Amino acid sequence: MGRATGRLPGQLARHAAFALAAGTAGALAASLATLALDAASALPARFPWLLFALPLLGAASIGLFKLLGLPLGAQPGSVVEDVRDDGRVPLALAPAALAGTLFTVAGGGSAGATATSLAMSSSAASALGRLARVEPLAAPGARAPRRGWTAACGMAAAFSALFGAPLAGAAFALELVRFDGAVARHLPAVLTASLAAWIVSLPLAGGYALPAAAPPDASWRAGALCLLVGLASAAAGTVFGWSLRALRRAFGRARAHPALVAAAGGALICALVLAFGWQRFEGSGLALLADAFAGDAGPFDFAAKALLTVVTLGFGFKGGEVMPALSVGALLGASCAGLIGAAPPFAAAMGAAAFLAAAARCPLAAVLLAGEAFGWAAAPWAALAVLPAYLGSVDVGMFGRGITAWRTRSRAARGQREDRRRGRGR
């Protein structure tokens, strides 16, 4: 006992040094991913024929994953499942996720850099943890220490650097792993990595600067808008998350080769874009988000962006879901503003937070992101929109089920223990 206590200060010092290194790596990964994505996003406008190459680019990304020994159906966001399962995040996922996302966006697919940054940063943090031999804080009575917390530090760092939101970054990582005890015990390290990434990212180029949105004076209309946006986000977020998960499951079970499925998806995207003139819905959606805040969005733009994103990522194309989800939410919020005559910037901000909470199952991160991005005066309004969005939506999100999945498993485990206890009593 005394030996373990004596080792604790040195262990905590190693954790702090690791968190600083992971935060730095996360900031660099976020900057690289967004700058590369910006360059790729400009290509479809300069070379419209790239849209016809999208099927080949989709097949190429599948081939790259096979070449690097990665699961063909893996997405940059698959790192979340690796952390939940305490699996090792492969180092090869970083270059594969970046290259795959660039292929998607260069050809006109709808995807962002957030999940790509998460994959790159988590992969780097996991490798740093193994290289430095950082030992986890094991729970009392634990059979084997879990090491997924190092990748969680990378996830928090990437989110923090992308949006300039260190508190939201830490909360996002915790919510994605469903407040797993092995990660929660390392909350100081996760928060340190998130803060370090935010500081390091300040002088760097890249990242996503969300538009400003001044909160209104307290009024019944503002409250009604938040509730309306929340309920609309609950319905739309459920459809979005369920559709994306269903298509991805179908992709994994398809008898055809994954490269052929991705090529078919690319042909479908090409047909949709050409048939409806949806060129502006390509890419991450950052420009659409700006349109929503400016009041220049159409009433059904959110549906077009959501559909193009689901088809892109559901058919095996690589890329991130978070930035497209924020743009869908902002467009949805702006549409709700027109119904009751509210200010578009505020409605778009509430829509972005509420839709993220519903589609990604991360209500705490959504409220904190609103506070850090739009000012803390907006946080109570965001909470009012997030609450119905999260509680009113089905627990099937972009990254799987949320904290309720952990509660369900806990109740099932307690039930099994009670059954065994009764059996011994007989």
Question: What can you tell me about this protein's structure?
Answer:
- This protein is 71% helix and 0% strand.
- It is built from 19 helices and no strands.
- The chain is mostly helical and 426 residues long.
- The longest helix has 40 residues, at 2-41.
Task: Describe the structure concisely.
This protein is an all-alpha fold. Helices cover 71% and strands 0% of the residues. It has helices at 2-41, 43-46, 54-67, 79-84, 93-106, 114-132, 149-163, 166-176, 181-184, 187-201, 220-253, 258-276, 286-294, 301-314, 322-340, 344-360, 363-374, 379-391, 403-425.
How many strands, what sense, and barrel or not for the largest sheet? none
- Spans of 5+ residues with little confidence (pLDDT < 50)? 408-426
Question: How many strands appear in the DSSP assignment?
Answer: 0
Question: What is the string of helix and strand elements?
Answer: HHHHHHHHHHHHHHHHHHH
- Amount of helix: over 70%
Multimeric status of the protein: single chain
Mean pLDDT comes to: 86
Helix segment tally: 19
Please give the alpha-carbon distance between the first and last residues.
39 Å
Q: From the helix content, strand content and strand pairing, which structural class follows?
A: mainly alpha
Query: Taking Cα atoms only, what radius of gyration do you get, to the nearest Å?
Result: 21 Å
Residues in β-strands, percent: under 5%
Q: Name the shape in a single word.
A: globular
